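Today's session is about reading a structure prediction critically. Students often jump straight to the picture, but the first step is always the sequence itself: look for stretches that repeat, for charged clusters, for runs of hydrophobic residues. Only then move on to the predicted structure, which in these notes is written as discrete structure tokens rather than atom positions. Here is the chain we will use throughout the hour.
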Amino acid sequence: MIKVGVLGAKGRMGQLVCATVSDASDTELVAQVDAGDSLDALLAADLVVDFTYVGVVMDNLRWCVEHGRNAVVGTSGFGDARLAEVREWVEKAGSVRVMVVPNFSIGAVLMMRFAAQAARFFESAEVIELHHANKMDAPSGTALRTAALISAARADAGLGAPPDATTQEVAGARGASVDDVRVHSVRLAGLVAHQEVLLGGHGETLTIRHDSLDRASFMPGVLLAVRQVAGLGAGLTVGLDTLLDT
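Below is the predicted structure for this chain, in token form.
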């Protein structure tokens, strides 16, 4: 039985994670922690799932690492600098596993994989991510991860930055440039989590789109990470890709 503590337990995702962990036959919910609660309740857990927010997640992770608790992180906002900092912590700890997951949806993970596979065959690539209006960060962690994967695939294929003749623009009209890949963020009431990867070549385009219509779509990925993170080598793992290949 895997003993699980949840950070951000009163949020929409946190409540769903708590219910999912409680319902699974091989996991036990032993701690529910939210803003203002002592983190010491998490000492009863083997593993901590963090669904908090950008401003507190690093402090939470540092606590987990310092107290020898494996962590699965669904909180967004992890760029290269933050990942490097977490990697340094876990390497010093030596025996802790931290998994930072930009998107727990299996479909979204496959979308990112397909985009990386296709990127080397097309001259242009751009990402449009669409989320609910309450999302605090932009671009999303999924979009940042997708852009990084696309950029790496293009570099391996000897491709430079996608062509773009823009010389005049209203600030932000062309989105953000993430590893030379343009990323556009939409925040709209009624949405949950959606992403399109647009690829363009000679006389053709390819669109790869994923839609999460309900937050329940993330729960199979959360359980997959909870069940398998202890079997990974100590250190930092980014994304569910490694687990899908086992």
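Discussion point for the tutorial: The chain has a mean pLDDT of 95.
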